[in-house]
Amino acid sequence: MKININKFFTVRKVLSFLLLCSIGYSAYSIYYKVKYWGFSVSPKAVTDVWTVDAKISFNALGEKVQVSLAVPNDKDGFKILSEEVVAKGYKVTRDKKNSRIILDAPQKSGKQNLYYRLSIYDDAQNASLNSLLPAKIDRPILADEERLQMRKIWKIADSQKGDKVQKAILAINQEMDNPTMSLILPINHTSKEFAEKVIQVLAYKRIPARIARTIKLEEGRKTEKPDIMIEAYLDGRWGLYDLNTAKIGLPKNWVIIQRGGVSLLDVKGGEDSTVVFSVLKSVASPLKMAEHRAKANDKLWSYNYSMYTLPVFEQNTLKWLMIFPLAILVVVIMRNIIGVSTMGTFTPMLLAMALVRTGFWPGLICFSVMIALGLIMRAVVAKLNLLLVPRISFVVIFVILLIQVLTVVGYRLNYTIVSSAIFFPIIITAWIIERASITWEEDGAMNTLKEIFFTFITAVVTYFVISNEYVRHVMFAFNELNLVILFVVMLLGTYTGYRLTELLRFAPLIHKDN
Fold it and tell me: What does DSSP say about strands 254-259 and 209-216: parallel, antiparallel, or unpaired?
């Protein structure tokens, strides 16, 4: 039995298969850019970039100085964009193991002001809490009265909701007004002392916990003391807990400055040390942050070979080129599916591009005036019986002179409409005038006006598609969509059915047969 291969591999089937492949590739590429590069469909989307400044002040004693400041790392909920230390005369090193900045100076005296600046972005919402296993802990040694109070707290905790850590926090907060609570926690206690007692209560049940210092990212915020939370290891993972509400997790727009009970700031060779944190907010576009996100996700190799690494001038040029295929698709649909006839195949697309530069109404009015005057002059020249090339050359020169006159008049009279003429392609304008004149002579005025009208209509439809800010952004950010457009255009090329205008034209015959 002979199998006809052409039956299975027709042009339409092959193109349909390639179209599905391009859709699959584009979908994955868009997902990749959104996930790893942070791209957005909206051109107005922005990324919040938070700048945290730490000002360290102390009085140096005229001897060797060492300053140690706890700082966040890229696993503390946010990604680090940049770090900067301003400390003249100090040697700066980083202790990555303990997440601290060390500043050393051989000898300093007097008032010292040192600055540490950190820019962070993309709140990871606790996606990367510390996964290190805690050391085994023993129960704290307590006096008899303290032991009774500890048992009472855990008895109250059993009636609370949540996990063991939440129950303990809620129980301690509930017993704050109880006089016997002073055995465990002083009445005028600090947030650090409260956190330390919560850690002690958890240690009674052998639950590892530690202090976590955090800062709320709020515009214009200044604080000398970061907020205290605790991290506890329960059910095989670390969790972050609010000491007031017992809620789990780092709230949105909060960043962890330090983990563990070590001091936030240590100064050797100085006294009266303070650190003041201030927060500022700025924004950046997803395209500008793409390189940093790719680097943070270890996907920098893919970004380095993208067009987004080009200089801004080249990117702006490509941004316009990326919209061309969509404009071509509109023209193909208007001609092959709807069935309109235009002055040239891609003339409407070029006119739409010019309208984007000039503005819709100024460009449309100016172009209409140019075509009308050009047709009048072409009709006058037709009586001279010139050869083809000189005749077209005359039209081109006339269009140039017309543009010159309109530009000067527009400038002097402050009319932006006529000054928009310089953005229209000279050769295309001259060719439309010549083509319209020939059509007028061969097919009559009605057909000529019809072609000019449909050319304008197609250009207007194309203009509204490509002038949309969202469309331009999507076609540039997700330029793999042009591959889909390519196969859609090729598939439309295999369409041999009736066009919409033909259905309207043959409608009387259908009604007559019925």
Answer: antiparallel
Q: Determine what percent of the chain falls in helix, strand and coil, rounding each to the nearest 5.
A: 50, 20, 30
Q: Is 162 helix (H, G, I), strand (E, B) or coil?
A: coil
Kindly report, residue by residue over 373-407, the tens digit of the pLDDT: 888 888 888 788 888 788 878 887 888 888 888 77
Whether the model pTM is above 0.85: no
Interior angle at CA 113, CA 111 and CA 116, nearest 5: 160
Torsion sign, CA atoms 115, 278, 79, 251: positive
The CA distance from 146 to 398, in Å, is 102
Yes or no: say if 213 and 257 are a contact pair by the CB < 8 Å rule: yes
* Residues 245, 230 contacting (CB under 8 angstroms): no
Which tens digit of pLDDT belongs to each residue from 200-252?
A: 889 888 899 999 999 988 888 888 888 999 999 988 888 899 998 889 988 88
Phi-psi region of 385 (alpha: psi -120 to 50; beta: other; left: phi over 0): left
Residue pair 164/209 in contact (Cβ under 8 Å)? The answer is: no
Helix/strand/coil for 305: coil
The phi, psi pair for 461, rounded to 5°, reads -60, -45
What dihedral angle (degrees, nearest 10) is formed by the CA atoms of 230, 234, 239, 244?
-50
Question: Is there a contact between 406 and 418 (Cβ–Cβ < 8 Å)?
Answer: yes
Instruction: Give the whole-angstrom CA distance, residue 63 versus residue 109.
Output: 7
Q: Is 277 left (phi over 0), alpha (psi -120 to 50) or beta?
A: beta
